[in-house]
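Researcher: Next sequence.
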Amino acid sequence: MECNCSHCQRKGFLLWFTSPETFTVTGDESAMTQYNFNTHNIDHKFCATCGAQPFARGRTPDGKEMVAVNLRCAPDFDRAAIEIVAADGKSF
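Model: Next structure:
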């Protein structure tokens, strides 16, 4: 998903969503900090050293826990291999 809200658009996020049970952080998550904006429903995690924002934790509109992965932070990610869905976050 590529969202056009002020946050996602400016940072160039390309998001893929999954459940917390299928997501594993392989590095030291304590080295990360978080940013919350707007309704504060999503904890945007970012590296305190370099500023990269690889993922966020939050809830879906129906209340389920989710993880949003910024695919642009994934090594060896091939953007041409997926269909990108536009999301109109600017209207919310």
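Model: The CA atoms of residues 44 and 56 lie 4 Å apart. The domain at 2-87 is CATH 2.170.150.70 (Metal Binding Protein, Guanine Nucleotide Exchange Factor; Chain A).
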